[in-house]
Amino acid sequence: MEIDVKTLTIILLVLAIITIGSYYNLNPTEKIVEVCPDDNLSILDVSIYQAAENLYDSSEMFYNYHVYNYGDGEARNIKVTCKSWDENMNLQFSLTDNFGSLDPKTYEFGEVVGENLALGGEYISDCYVSSCDNCKILYKEIQESVDYFES
After folding, report:
1. What angle do CA 129, 64, 130 make, to 5 degrees?
2. Any idea which fold 42-149 has?
3. What is the pLDDT of residues 31-56, one digit of tens each?
4. Among 19, 41, 79, 103, fewest CB within 10 Å belongs to which?
5. Which of these, 133, 132, 131, 127, lies nearest to 145 by C-alpha position?
6. 82: closest CA among 95, 92, 66?
7. Quick one: 135 exposed, middle or buried, by C-beta within 10 A (0-12, 13-18, 19+)?
8. What pTM was estimated for this model as a whole?
9. Are the C-beta atoms of residues 117 and 16 closer than 8 Å to each other?
């Protein structure tokens, strides 16, 4: 039995695809976190929108963010903390905002105003839910996020 080059190439290509597909199925690159809350419990997350200098008062900086409630319950007494780090990851600024409450399965815009540190150069800013009542804080379910925000 003689196999021509074209048939052999196709067989080897199919085997390579199967091998690569099996590797990625056995070694997933994403971490999946399952959060199964009790009824009427909120699941909160924050995404920073921007950190910017106030154009009308250069001594102030705005930290704008969105708070998301993915759960079925109302979140109360939400506190959002915003931080800025310099290019060497040294904490330069931290301010906590008393955001208030958030209805189930909604999101809202929030803003906290702080002193302009005139960091210059490169800096990183981020915000997160630091505490709340009747809620589960999403970032606390992922150890890398806990290390990042609570450092």
Report:
1. 10
2. Immunoglobulin-like (2.60.40)
3. 555 555 566 889 999 999 888 888 89
4. 19
5. 127
6. 95
7. buried
8. 0.70
9. no
What DSSP line would sit under the chain, residue for residue? ----HHHHHHHHHHHHHHHHHHHHHHS-SS------PPTT-EEEEEEEEEEEE-SS-TTEEEEEEEEEE-SSS-EEEEEEEEEEEETT--EEEEEEEEEEEE-TTEEEEEEEEEE-----S-EEEEEEEEEEESEEEGGGGSHHHHHHHT-
Backbone phi, psi, residue 141, to 5°: -85, -5
In the chain, what are the domain boundaries? 42-149
Model confidence band, residue 116 (pLDDT cutoffs 50, 70, 90): confident
pLDDT on residue 46: 93
